[in-house]
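REQUEST FORM: STRUCTURE PREDICTION
Request ID: SP-0412
Submitted by: Lab K.M.
Chain count: 1
Length (residues): 404
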Amino acid sequence: MGLNDVPSSERLHISFFGCRNAGKSSLVNAITGQDLSIVSPEKGTTTDPVQKAMELLPLGPVVIIDTPGFDDSGELGELRVKKTRQILNRTDVAVLVVDNTEGKRPTDKKLIALFRQKEIPYVIAYSKSDIAPKNNCGEKEVSVCAITNTNIDLLKERIVTAANRKPPEKCIIKDLIRAGDLIILVTPIDESAPKGRLILPQQQTIREILDSNAVTVVVRENQLDATLKTIGKRTTSLVVTDSQVFDTVNKIVPPNIPLTSFSILMARRKGFLDTAVISAAAIDQLKDGDKVLISEGCTHHRHCDDIGSVKLPDLLKKYTGADLNIEFTSGRDYPEEISDYKLVIHCGGCMLNEREMAYRRRLTLDADVPFTNYGIAIAHMNGILKRSIQLFPNLLSEFNKNSK
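STATUS: Completed
RESULT:
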């Protein structure tokens, strides 16, 4: 997979933080070898986070993010700081840029405390070493100068060391299948489908199947029955469907063939499948006036049959029979105050990196609000959740215990 093929959600996110005029933007430009950020002696030149997808050897594909000064002030300054705080939630490695002519300031110490609180690996870069070199740097520190490129390579090495402490990435499907297996993928093509291409989880699933030397057949829901009859039901190892046609596909696929959804596989990959399955039971407790948040990680144009804003709310209201207060967020927006909601139903999170999904899950559960996702909620309301998690015996066993 080439650089241009790697989605942002799969890249390591490296973010630069610090006070205004600490030299963050100059350092970002030196690291990337590009004029990514505007550089000026005026304080507060960077007013919004700036990000760039690039290749940083030996890490490979990464996203570099330059942020506004964390010591900004005034009404606009507070909004910029809020934006910077949001960047923390998707940062895999943080670089704190300290102006060494000033030394560590209270803002720098506050940022270090936030890195530790959020368990973000970090490196401290003491800037302007041509004016005030920093001696006796520790293991996670380096004295740099963006103008002379002093120790830029050493800073990259420090970032690599911090990044290598990350846990290995989770797979979508390859640990569930064997070479030679036949996997059928059901992918509806409607107004909400991207023109001329498949959505990201479908692309990633196909690639993992091919990498596993298994075989895949991709069909629309109205082609599934004929396809099963043509290739033989006994030879099919697994059917994976888009959540919006879960009920239709369930009626077609015989009980002896395992069935799950892209959304469920993505929940497992993002690390919240167990939480999402347990939380789905909260749907049965919803009543008139309850607030439900439906959160979408991407910002696609919504159509009249959009799954998140139309199909899922309609199914919720029909299933519960309740007059629900349903709210929506998309993209990077996610409320910091979540306690008023009775349930959060999130998308699969394919456009968000694992750290941001972990932040959203933790924020929600800490407020004692159940957190599930589209596919699991739809499977629950169609009475097929148990079938859809049979691929995961430990989770199925726990589910059966809680269902008694």
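NOTES: The chain has three domains: 3-163, 174-266, 273-381.
Reviewed by: T.R.
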